[in-house]
Model the fold of this input.
Amino acid sequence: MKYKQPRVKPIYPLYRLNENEFRIGAQLGITAEFNDPEKQMWELAKRLDGRNLREVINEVRELFPELTVEDILEGVQLLDEEGFIEETFKDNGKKVPERYKPNVNYFSRFIGTEKNRYDIQQKISNTTILLLGLGGGGSNILTLLAGLGPKKVIILDYDIVEEGNLGRQLLYREKDIGKLKTEVALRALKEMNSTIEIEAHNLKITTPDDVLAFAEGIDLVICAIDEPPFIAQRIVNQAIVRANLPCVFGASQVSRGRVYTVIPKVTGCFDCLNLQYSINDPQFVEQFIGFRNINFSPPTVAYAPGIYQLTAAIVDEAVRVITGYAQPRSLGTQYEINFEDGSSFTHPTWSRNEKQCPTCGKGNISDWEIFQYYENKK
Done:
C-alpha cells in the first residue's frame, strides 16, 4: 500500500461549513471546499490523523459498508493530490531541536506523502555557508541564518561598525561602534545560536584567490558585497566558477533590490550576463564606461524595511538552492524586488555561453570590449 500513516497536515484546519460542505485550509489559494452530503469524505479526513491507514480504512468501512478499499484509497489520493496530507514521520530518526520545528512546519506546505518535511531542515543543518560581507545585506543575512541553523558559517569582512550602520545593520549595537564587524558578528551569532560553528576572518576581497582560500568544504556562497560596483561581483563570480560552488548574489539600489544565482556549469555566470548585454544592448558598453568615468560615489541609500525585504529573499533563495523545497526564482535571471510597492519580477533570463564566456566557458577575454573596462580604471 502506498500510504502508511497519512494525516491531514496539522498546518491546515479541517472544519464544516454546513451539513453538506466542509473545508480544508483557511488561506487564500490554499483552501479546498468539499460538497459531501453523505459525509464519507469528512469521516475519512477526520480519521487521517497519523494512525495506520488500515485502521482508518476499517473504521470508514464500518460507517459506510458500501465503500470498497479502493474507494477509500481514491479519497486519500485526492487529498494527496490537493497537497493536504503527509506521512507522519517522526523527526526522520533524528531529534530536531525545538527551535527548528516551526521551519519544519513551514516546509510541510511544500511536500506530499512521498517526501519527508524533516529532510529539508536536515539539509540545512548539514550545510556550510560562506558569507561575504557584513554590511547592510550580510549582517541581516547572518541573523536570518541563525534562525535556520546551518552546520557552519564562515564570514568575511574588513570593516568596522560605524554609527551610520545602526539604522539598518541591526546585528550591531551602539557599544559596538569602532569594533571590527567580524568580531562583533562572531560573538552575536554564538549568542543567537550556539549550535552553529562559525569562523570569522577580517579580510578585504580584492582577488578571486581571497575567496578560494575558504572554498574547501563549502556548500554555498552568499555574496553580499557590492563595492566596487560590478567589479566585486565579477571577482566573486570568477572564484565560485573555479571552485564549482553555487552562489546567491544580492545587491540593493535606491528603492529596489536584486537577487541572482549562479550555479557553475548549470546557469550562466556573471560574465555570461556581460556577454548577453554586450550582444543585445548596443549602449551597454557605453553605459558601463560612462558610469565608471564619473567615479560615482553616492551617499548611503538604505531603508531598513527595504533591506529586510531583500535579505529575506536572498536567504530564502539560498535555502531553495540548498534543499529544493521550492523552485529557486533567480537561476539564470535577476529577481528584482520593488521596496515601494512590494512587487517583484524577474528580468529576461540569460543562459550559459559555454563557447564564448572567458570565465565559465572556452571564450577569449580579449574578444569582448567590456572586460577591459573592468581591468582598467580611468
